[in-house]
Structures are given as C-alpha cells and as structure tokens.
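Researcher: Please translate sequence to structure tokens.
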Amino acid sequence: MVFPVVFIPMIALMPHGSCFLWNPWLTSLHAISDMGVLVAYFSIPLLLMMNRQHIDAQIRPVLLLFAAFIFSCGIGHGIHVWNIWHADYWLEGGWTLVTATISLYTAWQLRALVPQLLNTHRDLVMTREVAEHDPLTGIANRRGLEAALAALSYQPSGVSHSLVVLDLDGFKAVNDTYGHEVGDQLLQTVAKVLHGQIRAIDLAARIGGDEFVLLMVGCTPEEAHDKVETIRQEIQKIDLQDLVPGPNHALISASFGISSFDPVRGLTYSYQQADAALYTAKRSGKNQVEIATSAVAQ
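Model: Translation complete:
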C-alpha cells in the first residue's frame, strides 16, 4: 500500500505494541483531529485576551475561568497526540484531573451568574421593545422607524422604498369636542387600520400626535399610491358612533404624502419630501394622497 508523503513521518514513528492496531491511517486520523481541536481551543482564549477591553468587569473573572478551562482542554488534546507514541498515561490522567477541577469550579461560579445574565438579556430585549414602540397604539414609534430605516441602509442598492406621512384631518376638533380619551381611542383605531392594511415587511409608526408614518419596502411611490389610497378609504370608514354614542358625528379622514426613501440622504430628507406632499394634500382639500414632486421626477 502506498501512503501520501504526509504520512511517512507517521509510519516512521509508529507506536510500539498494539496502540491503534499498527494502522498509520488510524494513527493519522487521531493525531490530526486532536491537533485541530488543540488549535481551536487555544484560539478561543487568545480571542478573549485580544478583546478583553470589551468585556464587562462583572463577568471578567468567570470568562477568565472559562478561558482557563478551554486552554486546559487544548493541552489535554495535545497530550493525547503525545501519548500515541509515549503512552504516558499518568501525565494524561493527571492533566485530565486538572481540567476537571477547573471545569467544576467554573460551573460552580456560573451557577449564580447565568440566571443573572439571562435576566439582564431579557430586560434589555423588553427595554428595546418598549423604547421602539408607541405605548398608546402599540405600533412603532420614531425610534423604531429609525431602526427599520437603518436596517434598510444595509440592503442592496437599486431597490426602491417609499415613505408615507399622514395625519388626521380635523383631529384637534375631535379632541376639543369629545375629549382626549376619545381622541386616544381614535388614534388606536387608526393604528389598527394601518397595521391591518400593510404587509408584514412594511412598518407603521406613530411619531407624535395624530401623525403617522408608513415605510413601504420595495415599493416605488407610484406603486405605494394604490395601497395608500385603500388605507385612506378604510380610515374614512371609521365611525365615531362606535366611540361616542350620539347623532351628528363628523366624518373621519386623513391626508397623505408619499416620497421615495433615500438611504444616502437619510430619514430627514425623505420625511421632509413626504411632509411637503402631505401639506399639498391639505391645501388641495384634505382627504387626499399626494406624491412628492421629487419622487415623481425620479
């Protein structure tokens, strides 16, 4: 049988006795595998050391123990390779005891830290969820909108997105006539309409008062227009009778402005373009959908 050149040293240093059944292939398999694990185990403590400035002081002692455990495991695999030819099992057994001691002590230290870290992670997720959602309507707030737009900035160029700004026509009159509690219920109802009409990949956000923003992913302003028109009609179907019993309720309506979202220029520019289109809709009689002039030019 002919072996590759890389296995010649293995053949020359074959262990005595019956270790690995005098099989060079089996010897090579164990030696290469253990050396690979050794390199991997040594690299983990090295990476932790190189990035130690980013490690929180609270978990640094436990991470040092973890690094010591990983390093000890790496040495153990190195001893496995050594013992293929030397059979020094006292050395191997002794080092295994060292590794077991380090690992048990590390596990003991982790018993209290792991629940604490998991609770901290849960609290951070909940905090972010609260920070990015409007507490009144349950949809995104400005911070949530900015986070979504930031994610779009990393998407491949050449894909069009639309930003839609809308507010309710005569919302102040609703608050003045029926009270802020009814106004809040109306905002919640509008948010439900928006959330129910957009796609899963789109985003609805309330950024203040009765002003909402829709992010419509992968849509040009012209493509978004038809969907926004449907939303306008659905908002017009909202009946104040459901919120405030009594006759002679005014109709609910909203005005919309649409612009294309430019990741390079950011939210402020795209919002200003959509907001200008919104005011054009207001001046033209309200309850309308307008596309920004710059978006039409594109």
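Researcher: Any highlights?
Model: Residues 123-127 have pLDDT under 50 and may be disordered.
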